[in-house]
Amino acid sequence: MDSRHTFDFVEGTIEVPIAQEIQAYYPPTAAYFNYFSPGSVESIKAALNDLGKFLAIEGPYDAFLGFSQGSVLAATYILHHSMLHPTAPLPVRCALFLSGNRPLDPAALQRGEARQLDPEKDGIVLRLPTVHIWGFNDKLYPGTSESLYGLCKEEERSKFCHQEGHDIPSARAKDAVLGAARAIRRMVDIATIA
To answer: Of 19, 36, 86, 95, which residue is the least packed, with the fewest Cβ within 10 Å?
Structure first.
């Protein structure tokens, strides 16, 4: 993007070993963190609560940008916020999901269940401009980005698929970087008009 864009990075709090998808880019001896422990309802609820506190102090924002588990947290938070505050505006105007995964059902979380939403069963649940960028060769979480895409409102979603795996297009794939940037700009345009 360009100098008009600024970013705040929300870090995870649960220390984990380096994830397979980033081993080629980062040293194995550094500290790595998740936002929540997958499958742990209490951990997921704590992450949602932490993100809510952060947004109350620092927000609102133009967009969420989430990679992999970050996309799960961002999408789940949007749904959670909508469930708790159905008439309140969202704390973001749009969302960018990189190698995304399906959000968790906030109503199920309240019942103590960690159930991922499914577009076949749950239909359209995310109703804000979104862009989805994923690799056709994602061997770690095949099909999850497509499922997240299917949960989003058709008129407000766009996608860009690249030839990489579970990662973000890099300089070695110039056409993929340019295609991703165009998709992001389209989403920003839609969010600005809305």
So the answer is: 86
Question: With the C-alpha atoms ordered 31, 33, 38, 40, is the resulting torsion angle positive or negative?
Answer: positive
Token couple for 118: 């499914």
User: What digits encode the pLDDT tens for the residues 105-115?
Assistant: 999 999 999 99
Tens of pLDDT, residue by residue over 136-152, are 888 989 999 999 999 99
Q: Are 186 and 192 in contact (CB under 8 A)?
A: no
